[in-house]
Design goal:
Low-confidence stretches: 1-24
Helix content: 25-40%
Mean pLDDT: 93
Largest sheet: 8 strands, mixed
Number of strands: 21
Strand content: 15-25%
Strand order of the largest sheet: 6-5-4-1-7-12-13-14
Number of helices: 10
Radius of gyration: 25 Å
Shape: globular
Length: 477
């Protein structure tokens, strides 16, 4: 009898040990971590972002890969914003491989983007700047390091998101001009709009597109209220003006928001991130009525960074913080056609180059520079593969594409998004040039001129937006 009682006692104890975990759900813990990696190139490195190549002779401010890692207990996401003009897919793919091997985060759950500062090392070949292959190898490792370090810094956290509006710093740079204005392009034909038409030009008629003044942000805070990181997204092209290597207003924002949040000298350090929104046709020059007085070097960068950071800091107290939110990611590849030159365009380009008084890398006029681009585009594949991506952070959705996306496309994605909060990050997971709408293609202008900076088929944007909407639908289920 006593053996029977003993067996029953042991059986009850065993059952209790099995049933106990299911008696009540374990509390869900949300974690977040952030970190940076220094990606400043050595002096003498090629600097792209202009029609002619430049060389780094000075570092005004350091460049960084700035990363956050989010963990809902089941799923991890990583977002890395890099102080670079353009980053080819090969660099990001290698960084994802290295980071995934080290952290276990799937490559599909990593969103990597370039800010589009025009004062960074050439990791992609564009116009007369050739990619620095030594820097590219270093760059990929340092991007991965940023994720690894952010993952190491994971700690219980709260998360929230919100938006503000900064009207005065975004202006459409494509303009319709007065009737009779001749707008010749490098291909021997005429355009209907002009990019950067000249401040207070009497021939200005009206902008060729809208603007988006919204600045979205995601705040990460420790459970004691200490700031971990803040990711912002604003649809503004680079500002420029700092001498030498510079992270432009993206880096200046990171510094200023840290100051406004009184988050400096923390352990681990606070990380500010500014991603490039849909700014393919947007800069901060008020063409019709702007101040023509010249600014001191870097002054406009500070003005823009302060305006955006101040608005984020103003809106931040009204943000609802969540102890836990679900995370998810969806990704797909699509194939798009390449606008390659026909035989007549190729013959014309070769003739221009044969007569050019200067040769690469010192081609001067737009006709010569675009003739070289035309010859190079003839060797491009007929189609290219692009990564489209969407992330879910609770009721916030982030879409991403590897292009300089026109602002009206970003506005369309917001309007059609099934999530109550959303924004788009451009230049993400690769680089495939400008992304105008078909209607903007018909108007011509710099952003549509066939080159390594603009080569996707005319109907690329509807296919990309359809693909992103499909991914958002998957995440909404």
């Amino acid at each position: 009898m006593k053996y029977t009682v003993l067996r029953l006692t042991l059986l009850c104890a065993l059952c209790a040990s099995v049933v106990h975990p299911f008696a009540a759900d374990a509390p869900r813990v949300f974690r977040a971590g952030a970190a940076t990696s220094n990606i400043t190139p050595k002096l003498g490195t090629s600097i792209n972002g202009n029609m002619s190549d430049g060389k780094a002779t000075h570092v005004h401010d350091e460049l960084h890969s700035r990363a956050i890692v989010l963990d809902d207990g089941t799923t991890k996401l990583a977002i890395v914003v890099n102080d670079s003009c353009l980053v080819p897919r090969e660099v990001f793919d290698e960084a994802k491989r290295l980071a995934s091997e080290a952290t276990g985060i799937p490559a599909s759950h990593m969103l990597m983007s370039a800010t589009h500062t025009h004062s960074a090392a050439s990791s992609a070949s564009v116009f007369q700047s050739e990619a620095d292959m030594e820097y590219r190898a270093f760059f990929a490792v340092r991007i991965a390091d940023a994720i690894r370090r952010a993952n190491n810094n994971l700690a219980p956290a709260r998360i929230g998101w919100g938006k503000g509006s900064v009207l005065g710093q975004v202006h459409n740079r494509r303009w319709h001009m007065q009737p009779g204005t001749v707008l010749k392009n490098p291909f021997g034909t005429e355009d209907q709009v002009k990019m950067n038409p000249g401040m207070k030009n009497p021939a200005l008629l009206k902008p060729a597109g809208p603007t988006d003044p919204e600045v979205w942000f995601v705040t990460l805070q420790r459970t004691n209220g200490q700031h971990i990181a803040l990711l912002a997204d604003y649809s503004l092209h680079y500002v420029g003006g700092n001498p030498g290597i510079s992270a432009d207003y993206y880096g200046a924002f990171a510094d200023r928001i840290q100051e406004l949040l009184q988050a400096d000298r923390q352990d681990p350090p606070f990380v500010g991130l500014m991603a490039n929104g849909t700014s393919g046709d947007i800069n901060n020059i008020p063409w019709r009525d702007g101040d023509t007085n010249k600014y001191a070097p870097g002054q406009k960068i500070k003005i823009v960074a302060n305006a955006v950071a101040t608005e984020v800091a103003r809106a931040l107290p009204g943000v609802k913080l969540h102890d836990w939110v679900p995370l998810a990611a969806a990704q797909k590849e699509i194939s798009l056609g390449v606008r390659k030159p026909d035989p007549a365009a190729l013959d014309r380009a070769k003739d221009i180059l044969a007569k050019a008084p200067n040769q690469f890398p010192r081609l001067k006029g737009l006709d010569e520079i675009y003739a070289r681009e035309t010859v190079q585009m003839a060797d491009y594949p007929d189609r290219v593969q692009l990564i489209l991506q969407a992330l879910r952070i609770g009721d916030l959705a982030i879409t991403a594409a590897p292009c300089e996306i026109f602002v009206e496309i970003g506005l369309e994605l917001k309007a059609q998004n099934p999530f109550p909060a959303s924004f788009t990050i451009s230049l993400a997971n690769g680089y495939n040039g400008y992304l105008p709408t078909p209607a903007q293609h018909a108007l011509g202008g710099y952003e549509t001129w066939r080159a390594k900076s603009s080569y996707l088929e005319v109907n690329a944007s509807p296919q990309i937006t359809a693909g992103l909407r499909e991914l958002l639908g998957q995440l909404k289920k």
